[in-house]
Amino acid sequence: MFQAAKVNGSGYCGPTSLSAVTGIGTKEIAQTVRHYYPSIKRVCGLENMVLTKVLDHFGVKNRHKSCRGTLRSWVEDYRRPNTAYIVHVSSHYLVVYNDQVVCTQFGGKVGLLADSNYLRCRVSGFWMIESDPKKGVEIPVSEVVKRSSFKRKVIKICEKYDISFDDWEYRRSQGVSVIWMFLPQEMIKKHFGKQDPWYDDHHFDNYEECWDRLQEVLKVVEKQECSRV
């Protein structure tokens, strides 16, 4: 596969090159990178093993080879007709196909290889793309993204119902400590007969647990509200 990159997120060379040979948007490429490498916060300068992992995830058969020389000499020595390559040149990734190239120089669009600014730059290696990606491969969601999603939903519910929410300890200790939530007394009296449904259990291990416990409370609240209509 060779096409213009779908730049719907990260516009750096790594995601852009991977998008050009997979047909997957750069936003989804970045999600895949973070799924396998949670320590990578900003998907920009990628190592070779990261590119290989993403290609493997989407079922793109590939072969990596180290080499030396300029991009111009690489074209003469290694390029085959009608074959796509991701080329690592001067700490930069671009995709070559025949006399065309997809590169951040052209905003992720297809340009002419002859117009590339990297023809005189050093190549350290390349991936020969041997197949199209497999169909139906899911885009993984990293734990960081999941956590962020649950956090937003929890905060939204807490603000709506005036529920006390404190995750300062949790954020400070990077998830080692706990999150605190307290229902307002007015809600307890109105819907739970003066008895706090959480009793003394007001600490939670993560945002997903907070969400689950809030859903239990909201089921009771919404059921009572509907019965009064």
Provide a descriptive summary of the structure in words:
The protein is an alpha+beta fold and 229 residues long. It has two domains: 13-129, Cathepsin B, Chain A; 143-227, no CATH class. It has eight helices and nine strands. The strands form two sheets. A six-stranded antiparallel β-sheet has the order 1-6-2-3-4-5, with helices on one face. A three-stranded antiparallel β-sheet has the order 7-8-9. A hairpin with a 3-residue loop joins strand 2 and strand 3 (93-97). Helix 1 (13-22) crosses helix 2 (26-36). It is elongated. The model has no long low-confidence stretch (mean pLDDT 89).
CATH class of the largest domain: Alpha Beta
Q: Helix and strand succession?
A: HHHEHEEEEEHEHEHEH
What's the number of helices? 8
Largest pleated sheet: 6 strands, antiparallel
Strand order, sheet with most strands = 1-6-2-3-4-5
**Count of folded domains:** 2
CATH topology of the largest domain: Cathepsin B, Chain A
Q: What is the overall shape?
A: elongated
Structural class by secondary-structure content: alpha+beta
The CATH architecture category of the largest domain equals Alpha-Beta Complex
Through-space gap between termini: 58 Å
Contiguous runs where pLDDT drops below 50 for at least 5 residues:
none
- Roughly what is the average pLDDT, rounded to an integer? 89
The portion of residues forming beta strands comes to 15-25%
Q: What's the helical proportion of residues?
A: 25-40%
CATH superfamily of the largest domain: Cysteine proteinases
Count of distinct strands: 9
Provide the gyration radius in Å.
25 Å
